[in-house]
Write a structure and sequence with these properties.
55% helix; 11% strand; alpha/beta; three-stranded antiparallel sheet; seven-stranded mixed sheet
C-alpha cells in the first residue's frame, strides 16, 4: 500500500540545500528561494512514482541511477512551450538578420542555427518552418536543438505534439507541416523532421559537443532563468565563443539586460536593436573573456601602485590625510549636487502635476539645466515640453531632445516612449513610432502607456487586429495589473482618470469592430 505524501518526513532547510546543490552540480540548474518549492515537489513526485518514502533512500537511488536522475531532471524542467513563441524575434532573424548576414559573410556552407535548451523542439521546428516559408530553398541551413533532458529530446525527435502546442499555428501551416494522429495530437511531417536534428547538450559543460562548433545564430531563450548569476555568466561566454564573427545570439527581454552588463558582456559583442527588438552580435575583435568586475579608475590606480618605484618616497601621513579629506570633500559635493538636483526635480514634477507647464520649464532652465545636461533633466524637460499643448516649437524641441537622449543611450525607456508620444502629437511616421514603442515595451514590459500609443499607431496603418490587441492590453493593465500608475513615467501628468481611459479604449474597440 502506497504511503500518503503527507506522511513523508518534513523538509529541513539543510535537506533542501542538499538537493539544491546536487541538482546544481550535476545539471547547472539553480533553484533559488522563489523556485525552491518546485524542487521539493519534484523530488516528492518522483519518490511517489518510485514508491520510495525515505528521502535518504531516494537520495541514494538518484546517486546510483543516471536514469532516475534524468527522470527527476525532466520533471524539474517541464516548461509549457508552443510553436512560434516570441514570433517577433523569429521574424527578425528570418526576414532581416539572416539575409543580411548571408550577403555580408557570403557563407557557402549550410548556415548553422542552434536552439539551445530546446526542450521538446517547438522552437527548432518553428525556425525551420519560417525559413522554408520565407526563403524556400534559397539558403542552405541546418537547424539543431540541444537539451540536457533526454526525455524531452526523445519527444522532439518523435515530432508529436498536443493541440495546445499549435495554438499560434494557422490552418495553412498545419496542413503543410503536420499530420493528425488522433487524440488531439499532431505529428511533424517527415520532410520537416529531416531538416531538424537534436542532440544532448549540457550548457554547464566546459566543452560543448560538435554540433555547437562554428554557429551562425543561437537562440537561448527562457533558459538562463534556471541558472544562478555565476552560471549565467559562464554559459553566456561559452555560447558566444561558439559564434562565428557576425553571428547573433537571441535571449528574451527578461534575460537580455542582465547579460548586457559591462562586466559580463565581452568587448567584441554588442547589443543591437532593430525596430524595438534586441539581440547580441559578435564582431571581429578582442578575446571573448569578459571584463573583470573591478574595471575603471580603481583598477588603473591599483596598477600604478604596483609599478611605483621602490625608490620613490611614499606619501607622509599628513599628505595622505589631506588627500583623504579632499576625496571626502569632493564626494560630499557630488552627493550635495545630486540631492539638490533631486529636490529641484521634485519641484518641477509638482508643477507639472498641477498643470503649471510654463513655470515648470522656467524652473528647469533656471535651476537644473547645464551643459552637458543630466539625462534625467533632459527627460524631464522633454516631458514638460510635450505638456505645452498647441505649441509647435515646444513639440519640436521635445522630439529633438528625445532623439539626442536615445542617441546617447539606446536603452532609455523614458526617451523612447516620450519620442513616440512626441511623434504621435506631430502626426509622425507610424512605422517609426511602432519601432520606438516596441523597444519601450521591451525595456518595461509591465507598462500600459506604450501599448496605448501602439494601438494608435496601428490604427494609423489600418492594422485593425493589432490595434485591437493593444487596446485590450491597455484595458487589462489598467483594470487588473497595476492600474493607472504602472506607466513608468511618474513625472508625466495624465489628464484622464483610470475609468475614463478604459472607457475610451472600449469605445475605440467598438469603432474598430462594431457588433
Amino acid at each position: 500500500m502506497m504511503k500518503p505524501l503527507q506522511q513523508m518526513e518534513e523538509w529541513s532547510m539543510t535537506a533542501l540545500q542538499q538537493w539544491q546543490s546536487l541538482v546544481r552540480e550535476r545539471s547547472g540548474l539553480y533553484f533559488d528561494q522563489n523556485r525552491i518549492n518546485k524542487l521539493r515537489e519534484g523530488v516528492e513526485d518522483r519518490m511517489m512514482a518510485c514508491a520510495i518514502f525515505s528521502r535518504q533512500a531516494y537520495w541514494e537511488h538518484v546517486q546510483e541511477s543516471e536514469q532516475e536522475f534524468a527522470a527527476l531532471l525532466s520533471l524539474l524542467t517541464v516548461n509549457e512551450s508552443y510553436f512560434f513563441r516570441g514570433i517577433e524575434e523569429l521574424r527578425l532573424f528570418c526576414d532581416v538578420l539572416l539575409p543580411g548576414y548571408q550577403q555580408q559573410i557570403k557563407v557557402e556552407r549550410p548556415l548553422n542555427i542552434i536552439s539551445a535548451g530546446c526542450a521538446r523542439g517547438e522552437e527548432a521546428y518553428s525556425l525551420a518552418i519560417l525559413l522554408l516559408e520565407s526563403h524556400g530553398e534559397k539558403y542552405r541551413f541546418s537547424v539543431k536543438g540541444g537539451d540536457v533532458d533526454g526525455q524531452a529530446l526523445q519527444g522532439a525527435r518523435s515530432g508529436l505534439y498536443a493541440e495546445k502546442a499549435l495554438c499560434n499555428c494557422d490552418a495553412q501551416l498545419r496542413e503543410r507541416y503536420f499530420v493528425r494522429e488522433g487524440s488531439g495530437r499532431e505529428r511533424v511531417v517527415q520532410r520537416l523532421q529531416e531538416r531538424v536534428n537534436f542532440f544532448p547538450l549540457n550548457l554547464m559543460s566546459e566543452i560543448y559537443p560538435e554540433p555547437m562548433r562554428g554557429v551562425d545564430f543561437i537562440f537561448y531563450r527562457n533558459v538562463s532563468i534556471y541558472f544562478d548569476e555565476t552560471t549565467k555568466r559562464a554559459v553566456f561566454c561559452r555560447l558566444l565563443e561558439q559564434l562565428q564573427p557576425g553571428g547573433c545570439l537571441f535571449l528574451t527581454p527578461a534575460e537580455i539586460f542582465f547579460h548586457n552588463q559591462p562586466q559580463i558582456r565581452p568587448g567584441n559583442v554588442h547589443l543591437e536593436t532593430w525596430q524595438g527588438r534586441f539581440f547580441f552580435r559578435k564582431r571581429e575583435g578582442r578575446s571573448l573573456m569578459p571584463l573583470p568586475e573591478w574595471i575603471g579608475e580603481n583598477r588603473r590606480s591599483g596598477e600604478s601602485e604596483r609599478i611605483r618605484s621602490a625608490a620613490e618616497p611614499l606619501p607622509t601621513i599628513g599628505t595622505r590625510a589631506a588627500e583623504v579629506a579632499q576625496d571626502l570633500l569632493m564626494a560630499g559635493e557630488k552627493l550635495g549636487h545630486k540631492m539638490d538636483r533631486q529636490r529641484q526635480m521634485g519641484k518641477v514634477i509638482r508643477l507639472l502635476l498641477a498643470n503649471k507647464v510654463k513655470q515648470a520649464l522656467e524652473q528647469i532652465n533656471k535651476r537644473l539645466w547645464s551643459e552637458p545636461p543630466h539625462p534625467q533633466v533632459v527627460t524631464l524637460k522633454a516631458a514638460a515640453l510635450l505638456c505645452a499643448e498647441e505649441d509647435g516649437e515646444a513639440l519640436r524641441q521635445a522630439v529633438s531632445l528625445c532623439r539626442a537622449l536615445i542617441k546617447r543611450d539606446t536603452l532609455s525607456y523614458e526617451g523612447l516612449l516620450l519620442l513616440a508620444m512626441g511623434l504621435h502629437q506631430e502626426g509622425g511616421d507610424p512605422i517609426e513610432r511602432i519601432a520606438h514603442l516596441r523597444a519601450a515595451i521591451f525595456l518595461h514590459p509591465g507598462s500600459w502607456l506604450p501599448h496605448y500609443y501602439l494601438a494608435h499607431a496601428y490604427e494609423a496603418l489600418q492594422e485593425r487586429e493589432m490595434a485591437v490587441r493593444e487596446y485590450q492590453v491597455v484595458i487589462y493593465r489598467l483594470g487588473r495589473a497595476g492600474g493607472m500608475q504602472g506607466h513608468g513615467l511618474p513625472f508625466l501628468p495624465l489628464r484622464f482618470s483610470e475609468q475614463e481611459l478604459i472607457n475610451y479604449c472600449q469605445n475605440r474597440l467598438q469603432r474598430i469592430n462594431p457588433a
